[in-house]
Amino acid sequence: DLTPRRRATGSRLHGDPEMIELRTPTQIEQMKPAGRFVADVLLALREKADVGVNLLELDELAHQMIKDRGAESCYIDYHPSFGAMPFGKVLCTSVNDAVLHGLPYDYALEDGDLLSVDFAASVDGWVSDSALSVVVGTPRPEDLELIETTTRALEAGVAAARAGNRIGDISAAIAEVAHGKGLRINTQFGGHGVGRTMHGDPHVPNDGRSGRGFKLQAGLVIAIEPWFLHTTDEIYTDADGWTLRSVDGSRGAHMEHTVAITAD
Fold first, then answer.
1. Which of 72, 143, 202, 226 gives 153 a disulfide partner, CB atoms 3.0 to 4.6 angstroms apart?
2. Average pLDDT of 87-114?
3. Is the peptide bond before 202 cis (omega within 30 degrees of 0)?
4. What percent of the chain has pLDDT over 90?
5. pLDDT, position 78
6. Pick from 33, 64, 239: which is nearest to 128 by CA?
7. Half-sphere exposure of 8 toward its Cβ, with a 13 Å CA cutoff?
8. Does the pTM of the predicted model rise above 0.90?
């Protein structure tokens, strides 16, 4: 989520109910091509990422796939108040101690690097948003464990995203996995609504209390995105004005899917 949220209480933590949009079954079908395209791009990037590959090469691959598909980037012109300038690239590539919003630059991946890639695009006016983390070359066992934990947290969040549950149930499911591994959780950035634009209500924190927050309904489309750092929950903004890094240099992992809630 490129939009930070304040720590808050009550319904404000999860967005204004009046601003939350529900999609019809027909609209959800119309959103599927965007989801498929974003998945295909991430699969291509995962195959491309290797020792010696430059982050700018990954961005160029995604850029070309956007062009070939006739899609639109959600990132390239994105300029929220906290961004130093328009993002200017079509991918977030976060390496090692960078965990979110990594601005691609002239850097060749090295053996053992932990790479997180976040990608969002619009196809026929509908947006999908997803992320994954991989290790290039020789992995550190602790990095593989962090990726596995983040993946399980995502799966737990998705499993809780059912009509009749609440946003807090998703948050609590994610947090249970993280806390089970002794990880601390930053709640400044998390999941969010997805639709015609990349970010909307409700906000989906990666920690929270079950049974609290907006009641999930059929037609709600959200991005669920746990991200964790090895030994801290504190981050700072790199000099590039975008990349978020851990304050203690520990590595991070980030996983995300766009999910549509249906009646069943």
1. 226
2. 97
3. yes
4. 89
5. 87
6. 33
7. 15
8. yes
Total residues belonging to the chain: 264
Say what the pLDDT of residue 15 is: 55
Contact by Cβ (8 Å): 146, 253: yes
Give the Cα separation of 188 and 27 in Å (integer): 30
Give CA–CA dist 118/49, Å, rounded: 13
In sequence order, which residues have a C-beta less than 8 Å from that of residue 104 and are 6 or more positions away? 55, 56, 58, 59, 89, 91, 92, 93
Q: What average pLDDT score do residues 235-253 get?
A: 97
